[in-house]
């Protein structure tokens, strides 16, 4: 079969997508599975698809046509220069989460980031302007870690730090732990200490504190100085705004919270952060619901020395930074 004919048929088959998006998906699929450029069918109109490759390509196209995200079809995605495994057991890492990691790394990297005077609590700032600078962390906690994208990003950025990822889902933790093999067999940068992954319920704060205390006693630092989290924050009533491929394929337990209690994860995180497991100058960075920025910040603003909301690249309230 000619490559150009497959591309034409494939774009037509992806009826759930706009034409430009369908073209981009087919182009990426061919690039990843066949190793061809996006313009190969134009420059070489007579190029044929190897017979052995066609069944794999058609099976992948069928999954895309059913609405399955491309990252699940391929089995991986790219995140901050790392190629990470993904499966339906975990959320697909988003660009917004990459940006959260970049801002945290910048805030903690005093070699490259000048000291910033913290604006008043609650300041809404442009990207990178409001984040307070802190020292390089020695112990980092990632709550609701899912695929481990934040955990592994922090482990790469701070190779001397103890980095701990926590999630309730055993299937998600299997993916997160498996990144070690995926990263070691790829061209991704090398790491220092391998992250530690723990199965625990973030909402059960007393039990989580006990688990983390035992872990700290075993591995080193007395307390954490950095907490990150991208917890479930989409209200059930907001489902109608979401796309089918997300609703039908990504894990709902990692996405949704009840309308009656939309901040339950942030309340649990605040309770944990206020306790003895975190140093007095610890920094916290959270991804938040764009529609609940003020309500989320109010959980922290009166209690901590610094709190600020930052906008993402779509000018939506997306990040909350808090420092003790």
Notable characteristics:
two-stranded antiparallel sheet; single chain; eight-stranded mixed sheet; Rossmann fold; 324 residues; 12 strands; 2 domains; 38% helix
Which CATH top level class of the largest domain fits?
Answer: Alpha Beta
Poorly predicted sequence stretches spanning 5 or more consecutive residues: 111-132
Number of helices: 12
Which structural class do you get from the secondary structure elements?
A: alpha/beta
How many discrete domains? 2
Give a quick rundown of the structure.
By secondary structure, the chain is of the alpha/beta class. Helix content is 38%, strand content 18%.
What's the layout of helices and strands?
Elements: H1 3-13, H2 19-34, H3 40-43, H4 54-65, H5 70-74, E1 76-79, E2 82-85, H6 95-108, E3 123-125, E4 139-143, H7 149-157, E5 162-167, H8 170-184, E6 196-199, H9 205-219, E7 224-229, E8 234-235, H10 244-249, E9 256-257, H11 264-273, E10 278-287, H12 293-298, E11 306-311, E12 317-323
Parallel strand pairs: 3-11, 4-5, 4-7, 5-6, 7-10, 8-9
Antiparallel strand pairs: 1-2, 10-12, 11-12
Helix pairs in contact: 1-2, 2-4, 6-7, 9-11
Describe this structure in words.
The structure is a single chain. It is elongated, with a radius of gyration of 21 Å. The model is unreliable at 111-132 (pLDDT under 50). Helix 8 links the parallel strand 5 and strand 6. Helix 2 runs antiparallel to helix 4, helix 6 packs parallel to helix 7 (149-157) and helix 9 (205-219) crosses helix 11 (264-273). Helix content is 38%, strand content 18%. It has twelve helices and twelve strands. It is of the alpha/beta class and 324 residues long. It has an eight-stranded mixed beta sheet, with helices on both faces. Strands 1-2 form a two-stranded antiparallel sheet. Strands 8-9 form a two-stranded parallel sheet. The chain has two domains: 3-66; 89-323, Rossmann fold (3-Layer(aba) Sandwich). It has helices at residues 3-13, 19-34, 40-43, 54-65, 70-74, 95-108, 149-157, 170-184, 205-219, 244-249, 264-273, 293-298, and strands at 76-79, 82-85, 123-125, 139-143, 162-167, 196-199, 224-229, 234-235, 256-257, 278-287, 306-311, 317-323.
């Amino acid at each position: 079969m000619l490559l150009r004919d497959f591309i034409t048929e494939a774009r037509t088959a992806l009826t759930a997508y706009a034409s430009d998006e369908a073209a981009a998906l087919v182009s990426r699929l061919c690039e990843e599975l066949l190793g061809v450029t996006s313009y190969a069918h134009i420059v070489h109109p007579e190029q044929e698809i190897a017979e052995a490759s066609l069944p794999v390509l058609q099976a992948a196209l069928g999954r895309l046509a059913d609405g399955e995200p491309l990252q699940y079809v391929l089995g991986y995605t790219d995140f901050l220069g790392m190629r990470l495994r993904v499966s339906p057991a975990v959320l697909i890492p988003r660009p917004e989460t990459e940006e959260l990691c970049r801002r945290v790394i910048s805030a903690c990297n005093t070699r490259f980031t000048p000291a910033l005077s913290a604006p008043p609590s609650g300041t809404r700032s442009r990207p990178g302007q409001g984040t307070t600078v802190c020292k390089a962390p020695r112990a980092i906690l990632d709550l609701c870690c899912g695929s481990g994208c934040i955990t592994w990003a922090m482990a790469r950025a701070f190779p001397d730090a103890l980095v701990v990822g926590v999630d309730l889902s055993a299937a998600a933790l299997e993916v997160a732990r498996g990144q070690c093999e995926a990263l070691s067999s790829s061209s991704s940068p090398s790491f220092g200490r391998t992250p530690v992954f723990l199965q625990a319920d973030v909402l059960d704060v007393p039990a989580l504190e006990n688990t983390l205390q035992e872990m700290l006693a075993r591995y080193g630092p007395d307390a954490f100085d950095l907490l990150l989290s991208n917890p479930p924050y989409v209200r059930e009533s907001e489902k109608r705004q979401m796309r089918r491929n997300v609703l039908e394929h990504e894990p709902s337990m990692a996405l949704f919270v009840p309308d009656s209690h939309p901040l339950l994860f942030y309340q649990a995180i605040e309770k944990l952060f206020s306790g003895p497991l975190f140093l007095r100058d610890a920094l916290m960075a959270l991804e938040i619901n764009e529609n609940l920025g003020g309500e989320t910040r109010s959980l922290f603003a009166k209690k901590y020395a610094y709190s600020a909301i930052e906008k993402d690249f779509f000018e939506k309230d997306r990040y909350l930074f808090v420092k003790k």
